[in-house]
Description:
With 264 residues, the protein is of the alpha+beta class. It folds into two domains: 4-141, Roll (PH-domain like); 147-261, no CATH class. 49% of the residues lie in helices and 15% in strands. A four-stranded antiparallel beta sheet has the order 1-2-3-4. The protein has a three-stranded antiparallel beta sheet with strand order 5-6-7, with helices on one face. β1 (4-9) and β2 form a beta hairpin. The radius of gyration is 34 Å and the shape is elongated. The two termini are 60 Å apart.
Amino acid sequence: MANLICELIGSRGRSIKIYDNKCEIKTEVTAGSVITGNATDGVKTVFYIDCTGVQFKEAGALIGYLQIETPSMQMNNQKSNFWSENTFTYEDKGGIVTNRLMRDVYKYITERMEGYKYKDQELLQADLPASLAKLYGKPRPQTKEELLKENKEHQIAEEERQKAREQAREDLEKRIAEVSEKSLESGTDPRVGAFFVEIENVNTCSEILSAWTSNGFTEELAYIKLTKEIKSKADIERMYGSSTNRVAQLKDYLCEKLMGETSL
């Protein structure tokens, strides 16, 4: 699959899309393309593997051009380097398309051609020239093999994370069950011990409120004061952001008020 590196807008209705394996030179119907007789050129796609040469002239007093030569017949302006259908024309007026950028485009295309011609993997996997890398947003496109390898690594890493999450959940459920059983044996509320196990490693007041709610404490009048305190701390957190000290203080407060209920 072709990776689009960038699209450049030139002069006389010309634009070029540069891919890692081909380029597309397009001519729009403009006053300039009508004058030069190119208004009907449309889009010319050239694969680097089929190229035989590249001619490049920097813009100056005259417009600059990049002409890509192929064995196939040119159907328009065969005698003109400027107006051939295989030519991208441009002016250096300080915009995106400059002589500096076009030198990098020329370098990139010629090296891709050489890489395909001589099956040179070092050239085919080389980083983009600086200005093209900036437009593309990455040092270079990844090969199909690299993408497959990366996807496989991501898949393996996600499987390992999933196993770790499942193990952590199993460990938590086991601890809750042990604490609840111990509480039942002592005749105390088993939910209290389970609650403290759940909030042991949480880092926000909102998580403490969620555990408090899931254990059913918010529905009981006996715990109304503690419920108000937890909700108050969660509201402050939403307004001002999380605080390690606030979470620690809330845990200590709850431990002080509830630890008489059970022995952990």
